[in-house]
DNA sequence: ATAAGTCTATGAAACGCTTGCAAAGTATGT
DNA sequence: ACATACTTTGCAAGCGTTTCATAGACTTAT
């Protein structure tokens, strides 16, 4: 009637060895005579024995599980990272506990707590606003933590991402080369380091290098939704922008459709560049030119990085920067 | 140096009670004098004690974790379900272990095994092709299982989804009413019950009720990608179809863009209806008319259903059908 | 005052596995 | 044949909780 009745004891008895020996063969410990190993494996097979991972975890103090704190799985950007994470995790025999946080500090703390209670061996955090309290808990915990596709404004935590400053700078420079004097900078909340400290900086760099002066009127702070982009259009028009660099694909699609629906021609009269090169960029018309980030790889590398920390291997660099790129499609000249 | 050193034993000592008592206050067992409870809680707070979920799991034979087998998290359809699942799971104090299967039977079996090894209290399965071997394992396991947004061709397992037959039938009937004599049926693999046994049936029903004869030439079996849709266009043209019902949004976007890129006017010369009403339907131009499914809710309800099974509550119906709808946008007349 | 209940709290046995240590077995060299 | 050095095994002590059987301490009814 119960979940799992066959224990290591049963196997030991049937194979006429001690449970220690069974444990050794299950764990691939080499100190077992081949004949014994074979005998044990046969019994395991016959009894359909499956080691109880919970008991194992208790005894070994390892759960072979890592926690993943994600703002929202249903967002393509994050779910792409998650896919990379899971694939590598599987490769290294780990499972992932996925927990949505909505980027909400309270939930993050709460989630972190239950993850630690579950004795995860490591944590991957996605999110761009690390509250002081969360940082405190991160520091206090002995569990390895990696930020995936997210930046740590204080550079204390291990993280994997691209060089946002340079990427945005290039993209904006390109728009300027096309003759745009007024390029709008459209992003999510500026209290997220990725927007204020990195993307905006790249934007300013580009302006400076091209002798254009920074105009706050051209900076639009909103949230990451498609709808937010659509309704932003009138404001963009009144600011007189002729092009925009957008920090999120859905947002960019919204902005572009907002323009299109208002009868503006893209890219002839208005150019748009977005940042994440998610599927959406290819589905909209015109297709969106975009900074490209290896999303899957960022997740995969983060997880790989984490396995190193979990094995207490030495890692030379705390911050891994993956190469970014730029793909020109039809939303720019 | 280690993960977590404060145990229930430390708390018991500090509070001068037995560990059994500490356990009771932690678990909200009422048989504790309020004064004692208060004292214990204070110590817990002071020591920053956090119960070890693994040890708890071993002792109680409950992991408060459910496994989620998903074809691909980075697919919006599935990640939307996943989001609903996680939210409800959190509500009921469960965590989810997310495992990608790519819809591959081998991986599914393998994943199922590790989930069971981890002693998950329940499993939510997404996928439309349950291999015999997998079904066998499902049956053999005493762990409750629910299919989310997926159908069980044999109707043995609990599941939550919409009435695909009726939904497709309505959508196709609508296309026929618009005067289309040749409506293409475009779906993913026909060896998936959802396509062959349900959607296709709805399609045939609609034809029959409108005195149109079924023509195999108009049935297109492909995979679920955007690209697959794009390259399918020529074939659709040669079959002479003037409208299509598509089983997946990305696929539909591909078909439509394929038409558009070939200079065909949508919906004037060709109408398209899709099936999942994901974000994509609103992002493309023209926006896609779609059958609507409450994706988030399907996930949420599945998880709720699962909690009932895990609590051994009686459930009257094994199959929960959620209401579907239809939203007319600009890809149909 | 006594029997019979309630409440509270304790002790100690699981739960199923890993692992350090020691014992038993084998092989090798002389 | 014997000492030496491995190689294989078994023993038993945890790992941190839950939970069952009990025991004390109070109440309450008689």
UniProtKB/TrEMBL annotation, chains A, B:
Signal peptide: none
A GO MF label: transcription cis-regulatory region binding
InterPro entries, per the entry: CcpA (IPR006377), HTH_LacI (IPR000843), LacI/GalR-like_sensor (IPR046335), Lambda_DNA-bd_dom_sf (IPR010982), Peripla_BP_I (IPR028082)
Residue span(s) of domain HTH lacI-type: 6-60
Top-level taxon in the UniProt lineage: Bacteria
PANTHER family linked: ARABINOSE METABOLISM TRANSCRIPTIONAL REPRESSOR, LACI-RELATED TRANSCRIPTIONAL REPRESSOR
General function of this protein: Global transcriptional regulator of carbon catabolite repression (CCR) and carbon catabolite activation (CCA), which ensures optimal energy usage under diverse conditions.
Stated name of the protein: Catabolite control protein A
Species whose genome carries this gene: Liquorilactobacillus cacaonum DSM 21116
């Amino acid at each position: 009637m119960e979940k799992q009745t066959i224990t290591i004891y049963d196997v030991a008895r049937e194979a006429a060895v001690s449970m220690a020996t069974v444990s050794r063969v299950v764990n691939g410990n080499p100190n077992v005579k081949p004949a014994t190993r074979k005998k044990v494996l046969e019994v395991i097979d016959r009894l359909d024995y499956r080691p109880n991972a919970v008991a194992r975890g208790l005894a070994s103090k390892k759960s072979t599980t890592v926690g993943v704190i994600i703002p929202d799985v249903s967002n393509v950007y994050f779910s792409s990272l998650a896919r990379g994470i899971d694939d590598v995790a599987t490769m290294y025999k780990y499972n992932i506990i996925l927990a949505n946080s909505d980027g909400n500090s309270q939930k993050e703390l709460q989630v972190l707590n239950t993850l630690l209670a579950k004795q995860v061996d490591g944590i991957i955090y996605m999110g761009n606003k690390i509250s002081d309290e969360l940082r405190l808990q991160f520091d206090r915990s002995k569990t390895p933590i990696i930020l995936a596709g997210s930046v740590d404004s204080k550079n204390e935590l291990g993280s994997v991402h691209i060089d946002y400053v340079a990427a945005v700078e290039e993209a904006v420079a390109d728009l300027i080369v096309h003759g745009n004097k007024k390029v709008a900078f459209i992003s999510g909340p500026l209290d997220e380091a990725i927007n204020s400290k990195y993307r905006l900086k790249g934007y300013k760099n580009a302006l400076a290098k091209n002798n254009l002066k920074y105009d706050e009127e051209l900076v639009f702070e909103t949230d990451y939704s498609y709808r937010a982009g659509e309704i932003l259009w009138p404001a963009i028009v009144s600011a007189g922008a002729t092009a925009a660099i957008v920090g999120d694909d859905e947002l960019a699609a919204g902005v572009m459709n907002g323009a299109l629906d208002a009868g503006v021609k893209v890219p002839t009269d208005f150019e748009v560049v977005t940042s994440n090169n998610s599927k959406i960029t290819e589905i909209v018309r015109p297709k969106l030119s975009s900074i490209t980030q290896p999303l899957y790889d960022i997740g995969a590398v983060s997880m790989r990085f984490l396995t190193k920390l979990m094995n207490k291997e030495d890692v030379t660099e705390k911050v891994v920067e993956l190469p970014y790129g730029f793909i020109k499609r039809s939303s720019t000249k």
